[in-house]
Amino acid sequence: MNEEARMAAARKKEHITLARHNKRPESNDFDKVFLVRPALPESEAALSNAECDFFGFRVQAPFFINAMTGGVEEGDRINMDLCRASDKNGIPMAFGSASFVENNPSALKGFEEARNRTRQPVLINVNADTSPQTVKTLIRALDPIALQIHVNAVQELVMPEGSRHWKWKEKIARLRDAAGIPVIVKEVGFGFDVASIKALAEIGIDAVDVSGKGGTNFCTIENCRREKGDFSYLSECGFSTVQSLLNARFAQQLLGLPEEGGGKKMPEVISSGGIRNPLDVLKSLALGARWVGVSGKFLSTLLSGGEKALEEEISEWKEQLSGLIALYGASCPAQCQKIAWICDAELESYAKQMARLVNPGEL
C-alpha cells in the first residue's frame, strides 16, 4: 500500500467514526411539502404496490441502500451487513467509493466479499478522477447494474487533503464510455443546480442522484478533521434535496426547448439526502424522483441495533410505503409522480425565484 492509499484508508476510518456521531437535522425541506390526499383514493394497499424496475431489474421497493463506505476493515463489515439486508428485502445496494482500489488493489477483496452477500443489483461508486481501467476492473469483479460517479467539490474544499481540481465533465464522459453500463452522477449532500443537471443530460448521463443537504453533512465531518482554517460557515452550502428535485424539474423544462437543450433526454432523477421515513420517499416520488437512496438513516439503525434491526426496518418501510402509495390514490411508484402537492411560503418563494432565473422573460 503506497502513501496515498494509506492516507485514504485513514480518512475512510475517520469518516466512519465521525459519521457515527454526526447529528442529522430532525427537520428538513420535506416538512415544507404537503401531498394532496384524496378522501376517496379508489385503491387497495398491497405489498406489490411498491415494486418497480431498477435499471431493468425488478425490485421490491423504489428505495435502495445508498453509498456509504468500503475499502477498510470496518467499512467492509458494514457493507456485508448492508448487502445481507439488501438481499433479505429485495432492494438494491450501493457501495461507497471504490476509487481507493486504484492505489490499493487488495481493497477489492472486501467489496467482493460483500457483493457475494446479495443477489440484488448493486451500484459501484468512484470519483471522477478514477481511471477507466480501474472502473473496468471493478465492473468485472462486482457485476454492478450501474456506475455511480460522485461529485463533491464542497467536501474536497473543506477536506484537509482534498483535491482542488474540479474540471469533471470530460472525465465523467470518459468513464461513461468505458463503463458500458448505466451511469449515475451523484452529489454527496450538497444538492444539484439546474445548469449542472442540464449539462449532464447533454453528455448522455443516465441518472442524477441529487443528494441534497438535510442528511449527513460532509462539510461538518471534514471540518472536524481540520487542525486550522474553520469552514463551518459552509455547513449550509448548496441545495436541499427538495430544492434539488425542483431544480431537476426546471432542467427538464429547459431540455424541452430546442433552442436551449437541443431536445436532449432528461436523466432519471434519484432523490437522496435526509430521507427519514417512507413519507419522505413518497414525497420524493411525487416531486419527480424515479428512485430514492437512503444512507444515514439505515446506517444509524445498523450501528445502533445490528443487522436484524436494519432488516426489520427496511421490511417495515416497504410495507408502510405500499400503504402510503395506495392512500394517495396510486398503485405503483411510477403513478406517484401524478400525486398533487403544495408547499409552504418559503419553498414557494424559492421555486418562483429559481423560475425567474431559469426563464427570466416569463416572470
General description of the model:
The protein has 363 residues and is α/β, with parallel strands linked by helices. The chain has a single domain (49-358), classed as TIM Barrel. The protein is built from 14 helices and twelve strands. The strands form three sheets. Strands 4-11-10-9-8-7-6-5 form an eight-stranded parallel β-sheet. β6, α4 (132-142) and β7 (146-150) form a beta-alpha-beta unit. α4 runs parallel beside α6 (169-179) and α7 crosses α9. The radius of gyration is 20 Å and the shape is globular. The mean pLDDT is 92.
Give a topology summary.
Elements lengths: L2 H19 L11 E3 L16 E3 L2 E3 L3 E3 L7 H17 L3 E5 L10 H8 L6 E6 L4 H11 L3 E5 L2 H6 L10 H11 L3 E4 L7 H9 L4 E3 L8 H7 L16 H15 L2 H4 L6 E5 L5 H9 L4 E4 L1 H10 L1 H21 L13 E3 L1 H14 L5
Which descriptors would you attach to this protein?
about 375 residues, alpha/beta, TIM Barrel, 8-stranded parallel sheet, two-stranded antiparallel ribbon, 12 strands, about 45% helix
The fraction of residues assigned to DSSP E strands is 5-15%
- Sheet bearing the most strands, described? 8 strands, parallel
Count the beta strands.
Answer: 12
**Number of discrete domains:** 1
Structural class category: alpha/beta
Concise summary:
This protein is α/β, with parallel strands linked by helices and 363 residues long. It has helices at residues 3-21, 73-89, 108-115, 132-142, 153-158, 169-179, 194-202, 218-224, 241-255, 258-261, 278-286, 296-305, 307-327, 345-358, and strands spanning 33-35, 52-54, 57-59, 63-65, 93-97, 122-127, 146-150, 183-186, 207-209, 268-272, 291-294, 341-343.
